[in-house]
Specification:
There is one protein chain. The protein has 485 residues and is α/β, with parallel strands linked by helices. The chain has 3 domains: 138 residues, NAD(P)-binding Rossmann-like Domain (Rossmann fold), CATH 3.40.50; 144 residues, Succinyl-CoA synthetase domains (Rossmann fold); 185 residues, 3-Layer(aba) Sandwich (Rossmann fold). Helix content is 43%, strand content 16%. The strands form 4 sheets. It has a 7-stranded mixed β-sheet with strand order 9-8-11-10-12-13-14, with helices on both faces.
C-alpha cells in the first residue's frame, strides 16, 4: 500500500464529514454516534444527512449527500439499514467522497444475501477509489483530529498506542479500560467485516504514523494471512506489535464466524505465524493493554537479566519463580552492589537477588538500594515490589475513620508526597540508566501519581510485571536477530 497516507488519512484525519442517517431520536445510532463526534469537538465541518429533518444538533440537515455544499468530502459515516447502503455508497461515490465508515451489520456475518450485498459494497468502493471501513463496525477514533466516530461514548486521551480490532465491542471496551488506566491512544479502528480494508491495511498505516509508537491488534481470523504477516514483519522492524487472537477453541472459532464472518483457524498456527514476524502475543485482552503501556513508556531491556527489589520476602520468591518460568534470568549481585547495599540495610539482609528490604521503613534507603541495583552491569531491568503506592492503603484506612483528626490527615498527605517523590526518582533512574523499571504496589487499586517527570509504569501484579518484561525482552531479541541476518 504505497499510497497509505492519502488512502487512510481521509478516515482518520478528515477535513469534513457527511453523516448519513443522522437522527433526532436519542435511542438511534444516528443520534448517538453523531453526538459522540460533536461532543468530541471534531475540528472539521459536519454535514448531517436525513431527508425528513431540517436541523439536528443545531446543524443544517441535507436531504442527500449530493446537496452538501462542499466541493470535496473526505469521510462519510453511514448509519442506515443494510439493504439501502449500496445506494447510499453510490451517491457518495458520485459526490467524490474519499472514505466511508459503514456502521450497520446485516452483511456477510449473516450469510446468504448479506454476503452478496457486502461484495457489492466492496466493488463500489474499489471502482470509486474510496477507502471503506466495515461494514458491521463500531467506528474509528483519532486523537490528532479529535475524531470520536464510535458508538460507545469512549473518550481515550491522545497518546502513542494505535489499535485495530476485529470486534468493535471488545475494541471499544479495551479503549474504555485503557482510558481508566490512562493509556493514551493515537488511533483506533474497528475493522468489522473488512469488505475492502483489512486489518493489515490499518497496521501498515499505523506502522508509518509518526503519532504511533506501539501497535495493538485483536484478530479473530484473516482472509489473507500472507498480507498480514508481510505487514507485521515490516512494522516490527521499527515498532512493537502486540496481538491477541480470539477464536482459540472450536467454540470460539464458531462464534467468530457468526460475529464478523471471520475465517478463524488454529490458534497454534496463528500464534506461530505471529511469533515468526516478531509480534508479541498477549494471552488476554487486559494483558495486551498492560504490555502496550510498558512498551510505550519504558526503554527496551538489553537482555533478560532482572533485578528484584521487594519490601516483603514472599513476593520476591513468587516473582523470581515467575521470572524463571518466563525465561527471565535472576543473576547474582556483583560484589560492588552487595557492598553498596551493606551500607543501607541491616546486616541480616540476604545479599542476594531478589533484594529483600527486610521490612525497613526508611524509604530513602529503598531508592538508594534500587539505584545500586540498576548500577550493576549484570542487571538489565528491575521489578520493584511494595515500595510504591503506600499512600493508597493509608488513605483507604483513614477513609474508614469517621472524623479523622487533622494529625491523621497530615499523615496521609505525607505518604502521598513521599509516593510522588519516589515515583519521580524511579523516572529519573529509568532515564539515567536506560533500564526499564516496573513497580508493583501494595494495593491492587493503586494508580501512579502524575509527577513533574511523568508517570511510572505500575503492574497490577508481580506476574504481570514479569509478563511485561518478558514481552519486551522477546521483542528486543527479535530485533537483534534481524541485525545479525
Amino acid at each position: 500500500m504505497d499510497n497509505w497516507k492519502s488512502e487512510l488519512d481521509c478516515v482518520f484525519n478528515p477535513r469534513n464529514i457527511a453523516f448519513i442517517g443522522a437522527s433526532k431520536n436519542v435511542t438511534k445510532w444516528g443520534h448517538i454516534i453523531l453526538g459522540n463526534i460533536v461532543a468530541g469537538q471534531f475540528k472539521g465541518d459536519i454535514f448531517p444527512v436525513n431527508p425528513r429533518e431540517e436541523w439536528i444538533m443545531e446543524r443544517k440537515v441535507y436531504r442527500t449527500v449530493g446537496e452538501i455544499p462542499a466541493d470535496e468530502i473526505d469521510l462519510a459515516v453511514i448509519v442506515v439499514p443494510s439493504k439501502v447502503v449500496p445506494g447510499i455508497l453510490r451517491e457518495c461515490a458520485d459526490k467524490g467522497v474519499k472514505g466511508a465508515i459503514v456502521v450497520p451489520g446485516g452483511f456477510s456475518e449473516e450469510g446468504g444475501e448479506g454476503i452478496e450485498i457486502e461484495r457489492e459494497l466492496a466493488v463500489i468502493a474499489e471502482d470509486a477509489g474510496m477507502r471503506l471501513v466495515g461494514p458491521n463496525t463500531m467506528g474509528v477514533y483519532c486523537g490528532r483530529s479529535s475524531l470520536y466516530a464510535m458508538m460507545p461514548p469512549v473518550r481515550p486521551k491522545p497518546g502513542p498506542v494505535a489499535f485495530v480490532a476485529q470486534s468493535g465491542n471488545l475494541g471499544t471496551q479495551m479503549m474504555s479500560i485503557g482510558q481508566r488506566k490512562e493509556i493514551g491512544f493515537s488511533k483506533f479502528a474497528a475493522s468489522g467485516n473488512e469488505a475492502a480494508t483489512a486489518a493489515s491495511d490499518y497496521l501498515k498505516y499505523f506502522g508509518r504514523d509518526p503519532d504511533t509508537k506501539v501497535l495493538l491488534a485483536y484478530i479473530e481470523g484473516l482472509k489473507d494471512g500472507r498480507e498480514f504477516i508481510d505487514a507485521a514483519s515490516e512494522i516490527t522492524r521499527e515498532k512493537p506489535l502486540i496481538v491477541f487472537k480470539g477464536g482459540q477453541t472450536a467454540a470460539g472459532m464458531k462464534a467468530a464466524s457468526s460475529h464478523t464472518g471471520a475465517m478463524a483457524g488454529s490458534a497454534q498456527i496463528y500464534n506461530a505465524a505471529f511469533k515468526q514476524c516478531g509480534a508479541v502475543i498477549a494471552s488476554t485482552p487486559n494483558e495486551m493493554l498492560d504490555l502496550a503501556w510498558a512498551f510505550a513508556e519504558l526503554p527496551l531491556p538489553r537482555s533478560n537479566r532482572v533485578g528484584i527489589l521487594t519490601w516483603g520476602g514472599g513476593w520476591g520468591v513468587v516473582t523470581a519463580d515467575a521470572c524463571e518460568k518466563a525465561g527471565l534470568a535472576i543473576p547474582p549481585l556483583s560484589e560492588n552492589t552487595i557492598a553498596a547495599i551493606d551500607k543501607l540495610l541491616p546486616p541480616y539482609w540476604s545479599r542476594n537477588n531478589p533484594i529483600d528490604l527486610v521490612g525497613t521503613l526508611d524509604r530513602d534507603n529503598h531508592i538508594k538500594c534500587l539505584e545500586a541495583l540498576l548500577a550493576d552491569d549484570g542487571i538489565d531491568a528491575a521489578i520493584v515490589l511494595g515500595v510504591v503506592g503506600g499512600s493508597t492503603l493509608v488513605t483507604a484506612h483513614v477513609e474508614t475513620m469517621m472524623g479523622a483528626p487533622a494529625a491523621v490527615q497530615a499523615f496521609v498527605e505525607h505518604f502521598k508526597e513521599v509516593d510522588r517523590q519516589i515515583e519521580t526518582r524511579l523516572l529519573e533512574l529509568t532515564e539515567q540508566y536506560k533500564k526499564p523499571i516496573i513497580g508493583v504496589a501494595v494495593a491492587s487499586d493503586y494508580k501512579p501519581c502524575h509527577t513533574e517527570k511523568g508517570r511510572i509504569v505500575a503492574a497490577p501484579t508481580p506476574h504481570m510485571a514479569v509478563r511485561m518484561l518478558a514481552g519486551m525482552v522477546d521483542y528486543n531479541k527479535y530485533r537483534d536477530s534481524l541485525e545479525e541476518d
